[in-house]
Amino acid sequence: MTTSSPLQTAADPTTGNQEEGSIELRRVRRTYGDVTAVDDIDLTVHPGEFVTLLGPSGSGKTTTMMMVAGFEELTSGMVLINGRPVDKLPPKDRNLGVVFQSYALFPHLSARENVEFALRMRRVRPAERRQRAEEALERVGLAKLGDRRPRELSGGQQQRVALARALVFNPSALLLDEPMAALDKRLREQMQEEIKTIQRSLGISVLFVTHDQDEAMSMSDRIVVMRDGRIVQQGAPDDVYAHPVNDWVANFLGDANLLPCTVLERSGETAVVDLGELGVGRVRDRGASGDRYAVSIRPEHLAFIPADRTENSASGRVVTSTNLGATIRHRLRVGGQDLLLRELSAGRRTARELDGEVFVGWEQDEAQLLVLES
Ligand code: ADP
Ligand code: MG
Fold first, then answer.
1. Does the Cβ of 70 fall within 6 Å of ligand 1?
2. Could you read off the pLDDT of 326-349 as tens digits, one per residue?
3. Which of 225, 240, 255 is the last residue of a domain?
4. pLDDT digits (tens, 9 = 90+) for 158-207
5. Residue 140 Cα, ligand 2 centroid: separation in angstroms?
6. Is residue 113 located within the same domain as residue 135?
7. How many CB atoms lie within 10 A of CB 285?
8. Distance from the CA of 9 to the center of ligand 1, in angstroms?
């Protein structure tokens, strides 16, 4: 890309603003009567970063986005964009590209006119509007379809038009609220990859919303897990996945083996725990504190090992083995507990022999001490 392109964005050293593209929420709160939709959250999206709000329906994701975009008032707190407070700015002056699931295109306008509309609102001259709209449509792979009305486009193509409309005015960041929710799985995955490609090539910051953990895992630099209007945990996708802070996060982000334990010793990032019949082991510790604890190990982080070791291993037997295509899922009975172990099926001809004694082990770094909430 050349620096003269109209789609050049934000994280541009020539602007001299180090915070260009940043979004910051400080103790942001929103209540509706008795309902606290967003409960004092602090959150920063750094320039060029792809941050995803991940949580179940009703956890406050959309309300958070609407406050950043300027469509909802804050009950209290503060939003800063590019390092400046925006409480007095209407949505169109916040310079954010927005795609919401319900953000419909104008049915009577062509794809190109829909994209140009974003420029018209910003008083860009007609000749320049057309050229920039064409470029934005090209970027989302719709160069040849600019004359079509929305109803002459597929669902995926309509979302691309919405994306082009959000990008065409060089926003300092993009807000995307479940933009692929209406698409089928294959198209979703394709759009996920395209949005990532566009985001990387523009170096633009993205605040993304989804309730789909796979989507969050595959797209984000950082995942912010929300529940009941609060941030429960945030971090890089693999980190949050491997090291959930409590059993709710562990279960929300996939299958987890949760082994109740007694904490014997905690120092730094390591805890020594008593797992009852599974022995004493060393695990990762994030320092979360509560009344009851467990160790979380993902099924793919358990492995069959040749013989019992002294630490981080146990013996048991296989109850069922199910071939899922790419992976095999084994249900094991280990020390009075049911555990799931998942391994790649590549190269393995048969499932494990049922009822035979097996040994399983795990890496210390992949076992996480967490708080049992339920
Ligand atoms: P999410 O996007 O994570 O599904 P929302 O932000 O839409 O969650 O909603 C969070 C909570 O706030 C929910 O309990 C919802 O019912 C409530 N809520 C959202 N908007 C309104 C509104 N306009 N009036 C009353 N309650 C609302
Ligand atoms: Mg929502």
1. no
2. 899 999 999 889 999 999 987 665
3. 240
4. 999 999 999 999 999 999 999 988 888 888 999 999 999 999 999 999 99
5. 24
6. yes
7. 21
8. 32
